[in-house]
Predict the 3D structure of the following.
Amino acid sequence: MAQFVRSLTKNFEQGRIAVKIRWLEEFSARIDQTLCTFEIVTKIVLPETAHLSCRYIDVLDPKDLGTPDYFISHRWGANFQTLITAIKHHFEDMEMQGKNYKELFVWLDIFAINQHPSQEQVDDLARLQDVIRMSHSTLLVMDNTGQVLRRVWCLFEIWKTVQFKGVQNLVVLAKDVDLLGLKDIFLQLNCADAQATVEADRQQIINDIKTTTGIEAMNRFIRQALVDSAKHEARKMEAMKEKNAMAYFQALDKAGQMLTLAGMYDEAEPLIKKSLNLCVRMVGEKHIQVASCHNNMAGLYLNQGKLENAEPHQRTAVKISEEIDPLNSKTVIFISNLAQVTLGQGDFAEAEALLRKALNLCLQLKTKAGITKDDMELASLLNSLASVYVQTKRPSRALPLYERALKAAQANLEPQDPELSLYMGNMASVLQDLQRFEEAEQLQRKALDLCQRRLGFEHPMTACVSGNLGTMLGERGQYEEAEKLVREALEVRRRVLGAKHPGTLSSAKALAGILVEGQKFTEAEPLLKLVLEESERTLGPDHASTLKCVEVLAGVLASLGKMEAPIEMYSRLQTAREKELGLSHPDTMSAIGHLALLYFYSGQYYKSAQYFQRVITYQKNQGSHVLPDLLVSLINLTAVLSKDGKYTEALACIDEAISCAEMAGGQLASNIPAYERIKAALMTYLEPPAVAKPTLPAALAATATDLKVVASGSPVSTSIRSPIPESPGFSVAEMVLKTLHEQD
């Protein structure tokens, strides 16, 4: 006993005193349950110790104090009651093993460190490492915001715990926390960006890291420590799976989510599957925890781009949650995640409906809780819904949502938080769509500068923002800088994320688009083949996005003179569009028109004429508004028939074109003299051989040069246009002139 008292007194003097969990629960029960930890300090700790300017433990009954069994790492901005609940849930497993966890001692900084500015406070902080050494383990309390990973003291405590005691003594408390929702925070984890209440503390810790391991090495160390801690806990709890199945399930669930965050999908999948099956056995099919497991399974597949595998799990999560309670925060998360799956599948209508529903539920929950300030959850939903409007060509509807989301992010995040770059970038993209080019570029460059300064040039988010700026510049014809930015983004994503990660493929697609616009078809070809291969694998051969990739690649190959593959690709497009849209849909006709053109260039004139005739038949049934398109198709067919030596049919075709031009009038009628000269040239091929063939006048080379069939259907892709004309309206006069001269 005397030994204990001497030790206790020494710890008391040096700020190493921990509070008994029993006292902690009693304390939390008698205070306002809505207070965050920071408010506990300002409203309770500081006032009650002001007369002595001492630590809070200095005014507590010694029977409630002891040497620390556990060190608690947490953030002051979180709800204090949530902190206590997390600690309680963790130790309840010990209670089940016959241990009274309430008699254990936990070290909490708000009680053990003098909160009054003084030398004693400085000394208390300096001895923090000693407390970590003394404690059995460190408990890192996580919540759904993940902001604990953005506090420099918490990162320091993770570092020192693993350094002194190994990952087996770092325990992440994350019960009921959606860890997969913290993907961006996990990937963006950067000690240099982490914050502290006192700037001097932050600078001291950052300098310590720089002079020992280095910032980048420390970032990797902490991410790996979090993963290894969860893996160790899962292995440890496996020995107890019969006695304490729930604790084993929670360890499996946490490890699976952590591995998914780290991109270690092959290791994550069996753990998440096992946790799902175990959860169903414990609580049955219709339980909110089972819904969360399905959500985790969907998240695993979504992160890999396996949308067809993600969808059934995400729909199951939504169904279970809505049946239990349609108005709860988990339902909002699950619906929002389902929207991301359907968005990836190209189903914009369902994605929009789901996001509207999630947004409405979120607002209802906040109204019910009396919350009037827009938070990051709302910002994320606004951002997602706005992105659907952008992708469905409704930028004016997207703009106010992006503006509100950006304001919410600015109100809730630090001014230099890299996450702000995502919101700025999205605003920039919609400003670009609204042709507010200078504003768009300025905002996008600001976002890139923020990422480069705070995350470095090798971070995936920096690569994403850099690629977005490049795509923006490419759309404005600034190909040199655009190519440089997007190429750099692609290289970073390949190194960091892997060659087949969805983000890497997105950069490959963007670079291919810029190369196509710059007529660099040879460089674009391998990129497009990679994108097409992965699109076929993840989305299926007949998905709209896959077919767009097919169309672009076909155009590139045709531009390189490789006609066989493009013909096969456009035949595939025609079949798919006939099946999905019908024979008379403009997109189907566009594919047929491209086939007509490709058959001509490959010397298959008979097939070319057949396909042009199908286009003409379609256009004749569309009414007078398509007369310009019909005229171009007739002249095109004239060129094909001339090349095939079918002058009688070509003559009939040019006669019909002349009639069409006369009917159209205006600018189209001004080309009639040129068409008459074509007719005269064709007539010579029907006269006796003794009559010399006239030479077509040079002026004919300008005939119909600007005539193009109005492009129909969706664009080929977000940032790529097929180098083949989107209609069969090639330069008619040039074609006829070349054909007739060759036959001379």
Observations:
- The two ends are 117 Å apart (CA to CA).
- The domain at 455-539 is CATH 1.25.40.10 (Serine Threonine Protein Phosphatase 5, Tetratricopeptide repeat).
- Confidence is low (pLDDT under 50) at residues 1-11, 689-744.
- The beta strands are 18-20, 65-66, 70-73, 105-107, 137-141, 170-173.
